[in-house]
Amino acid sequence: MTNMWLLLCLVTSAFSLKTLEPPPPEASARSSTNITEGWLPVRLNHFDASNTDTFQMRYYYNSQFSRGPYIVIFVGGEWSISPGWVRSGLAYELAERIGAGLFYTEHRYYGLTRPTNGTTVAEMRYLSVDQALGDLAQFIEYVRSDDFEGGRFRNARVALFGCSYAGSMATWMKLGYPHLVRTSLSDSGPLHAQQDFPEYLEVIATALRVQGSQQCVDDIESAMKRINELIETEAGLDTVSTLFNTCSRLRRSHLDLSTFFWYGITETFAYLVQYATPGDIPRACDHITNKTLGDPIERLSSWVTSQPYTQPCIESRYFEKVASHTNTSYDSPDATMRLWTYQTCTEYGWYQTTTSSRQPFLNTVPLEYFHQMCKDFFNDSIDENLLRSAIVRTNRLFAGLEHLPDGVLSVGGGHDPWSPVGPNKTHETHLAPVYVVDGVSHCRAIRPTGSSETEQLEITKQSSLLFMEGLMTDTRSSSAPLLASRLLVLALVILYATF
């Protein structure tokens, strides 16, 4: 699975940090091989009764444990779904515990769920989280009806699992459709929309410092300062182009230089930290601080150019990026990134700028770079004014971090760069617990129990299952699941302390 993940990174643009399916775990030894791929006609526009157009929404279904009135759904995000997440993972384990049907839904416009002929701006008018939540609502109503397997899940209780943006959807689904969803787990789900998101790189700096060393952060900053000195001259541009293996010679254009710094350097560290497994960050910092490999810029460049995400070369030409992301075919190499970029430009922002001084990448990628990208990828109407209005709307509709719905369990990693726009312990209530797992990154809690990187992560997974099982089966009173999960945490901590 690790090799497949690296292969995906090789062929995927750096901006699509959030457009790859979380790599599915190995199939459980108990898993059935009889996984069904299904299609459901859903409404194109859930908010216009006069529009009766529909499209086919794809899903996977594992009926292996279906014996009770329960449905567990792994929510698909901005990626193409595959059967792996109905064969293993935390959602699979909850389905096994309570005897639920297990489903995996695909988000409109992504994968093979294609509502339109292409992805022109006009055709993407129905690409929004509002409409995607409407798809989920219609899907749940269908599975709970007599039309699905003769009413097998008639009026069944529903649990949702989601990670990253799909985790946001799992939370917002419980907020917007509480009559359809009993409980949700959101792993690493960002909830607060904002244009400028410099905190992302601040968390990366913290992870490099804690798991690597302060020297690692200092050497990156020294290298960045040297790069900025070199690009002031033509000879220096040649040197940087050679060191970092750019696809063409760097030019002293603000857009090209921001493209180089973002795609080539900051996003390479984003991949490292966001998808880190134990040992990844220390190994990177060992290389970056190894003085036998040259001065800081030589060490940084040799590490960056050795990463799978920068192969075969670093594309620094801004308008080459624009050209590849204005292709409106669903089958174009950058179709998924085009779709997700549209959502960021019209709903969320979350642009990972270098506007903070608490990170080592200097001020090399300003917010204006992303404003320009939105206009150039789409059209001049997709500008910063639209984005500001869209962000106000998103936070007004879904409450940002002001309110967590009852029955939603939120998990975040202490070194997840997305954690600053997700919930923390200050946001939890007794019916909406929040777990922040020290030292781990993005989307680690949806993976199977028994394979956790840390004891705290394993305890969090076990507590999450207990909380959700209690709400789904009514085996405890409404306030007992959180208390029981806290007691489980205490018991496991004591158990681990004895070894």
From TrEMBL:
The keyword rRNA processing does not apply. GO terms for molecular function: dipeptidyl-peptidase activity; serine-type exopeptidase activity. It holds the Pfam family Peptidase_S28. One of its GO terms (biological process) is proteolysis. Keywords: Glycoprotein, Hydrolase, Protease, Signal. The keyword Protease applies. It comes from the Eukaryota. PANTHER family: PROTEASE S28 PRO-X CARBOXYPEPTIDASE-RELATED, RE36938P-RELATED. Belongs to the peptidase S28 family. This is Serine protease K12H4.7. It comes from Danaus plexippus plexippus.
